[in-house]
Write a structure and sequence with these properties.
Elements: H1 7-11, H2 19-33, H3 44-59, H4 61-71, H5 95-103, E1 118-124, H6 126-131, E2 133-144, E3 159-161, E4 170-175, E5 181-186, E6 195-197, E7 209-220, E8 229-232, E9 248-254, E10 261-263, E11 266-274, H7 275-280, E12 282-288, E13 291-297, E14 306-309, E15 325-332, H8 339-354, H9 359-364
Parallel strand pairs: 1-9, 11-15
Antiparallel strand pairs: 2-7, 3-6, 4-5, 8-9, 10-11, 12-13, 14-15
Helix pairs in contact: 2-3, 3-4
């Protein structure tokens, strides 16, 4: 059973770190270790969970104070459970997860049915997904009421001591299971402030939260694939003033292209050439996602041959360079021939048959389906 790591160590901040220091460290590490950004790393989900747990402890003044009282400068190295964290092996899972692990499935604490996460979809053109782009995304979210600044009070309200918690900001909750347990939790009646207003805010009716339209500018990286989810941490809905907001999850849809197909980091398209161009070789100007490019077709190139344009494909997400643009050669076979053209081909066939290498026999394969 490995010990739960010190949350300061997890976030890489000192014990005198400010709230801004902690928030900045969390955002940086969350972006770096989010499972969506590390699809090939099976340990990224656990690291992200540990980072989120550490932030949960240090971003909450009450949890941080209780952590300091218990562990002080020693940091967390014990495997003993406590109410601010979790049990060793389940970093900072919280009191509910710890009780569930100890008591089994019979313990079912009340919990929000929703995490506050919001999922929206954004459609991208093929080139936008390949080269990256920025999008303004408008959506509705539940957040703090700006009129009362999340207090739930009328501007002229007077404040009274909360009867539920007697002004302490903490309420005792009795759990229902085969074994009755009582826990101290933040008082929901007063949002852990210990005070309640005698007049409520007309905007939010005292709920402290309102639903409103929000817009975020999202920069999508080059090479993003259809079906990928980009996460904006903390841009989701807030379920209560006692909880941090959820995340905004942006699902990427990529519209198909008329000419291009994507295969991992390569882009593929067809190039039409004539029989004469296939036999004699030619230069072709072709379209790529990076613009026009010159394609050299060697003499004797066959039907369905693939010619690569190096570095003209999709930029790699997590390393330098790009994939290739694959040009699939399609040799056009004329449907009808004039008498003169037919005679020329027959003479060509006769001459080719007389040559040692049988050139025409090789070229006839171009016209087979």
């Amino acid at each position: 059973m490995s010990p739960v790591r010190d949350p300061y160590e997890v976030l890489g901040v000192g014990r005198d770190a400010t709230d801004q220091d902690i928030k900045a460290a969390f955002r940086r590490l969350a972006r770096e270790h989010h499972p969506d950004r590390n699809p090939d790393d099976p340990d990224s989900a656990q690291r992200f969970k540990e980072i989120s747990g550490a932030y949960e402890v240090l971003s909450d003044p009450d949890k941080r104070q209780r952590y300091e009282r218990r562990y002080g400068a020693r940091g967390r190295g014990s495997t003993a459970p406590d109410f601010t964290g979790g049990f060793a092996g389940t970093p900072f899972a919280g009191i509910e997860d710890w009780l569930s692990e100890i008591l089994g499935a019979g313990f079912a604490p009340s919990a929000p049915a929703d995490s506050g996460d919001i999922e929206v979809a954004v459609d991208l053109a093929f080139e936008e997904a390949v080269l990256g782009c920025s999008r303004a995304i408008a959506y509705r979210r539940t957040d703090r009421c700006e009129r009362c600044e999340g207090t739930g009070a009328h501007a002229d309200a007077s404040w009274n001591i909360c009867r539920t918690c007697a002004g302490s900001g903490r309420a005792r909750v009795q759990t229902m299971s085969w074994m009755s347990l009582a826990m101290d939790t933040p008082c929901r009646a007063c949002n852990a402030t210990g005070r309640v207003p005698d007049r409520v805010c007309p905007e939010c009716s005292g709920q402290c939260l309102v639903e409103r339209l929000r817009e975020v500018n999202l920069t999508l990286p080059a090479g993003v694939e259809g079906g990928a989810i980009e996460t904006v941490i903390g841009a989701g809905s807030r379920l209560s003033m006692l909880m941090p907001p959820g995340d905004l999850k942006v699902r990427i849809n990529v519209r198909p292209h008329a000419s291009f197909k994507r295969d991992a980091n390569d882009v593929e398209s067809d190039v039409q050439i004539t029989f004469a161009e296939a036999a004699l070789g030619c230069d072709k100007e072709v379209d790529t996602v990076h613009g026009k490019a010159r394609l050299r077709v060697a003499p004797g190139t066959g039907h369905d041959s693939v010619i690569r344009l190096r570095g003209k494909g999709v930029p790699h997400r997590f390393r330098a360079g790009s994939g290739d643009h694959r040009c699939v050669v399609k040799v056009s076979v004329p449907k009808t021939l004039s008498a003169n053209a037919r005679e020329l081909l027959q003479r060509f066939e006769q001459q080719a048959q007389e040559e040692e290498q049988g050139v025409f026999e090789r070229l006839k394969g171009f016209f087979k389906d």
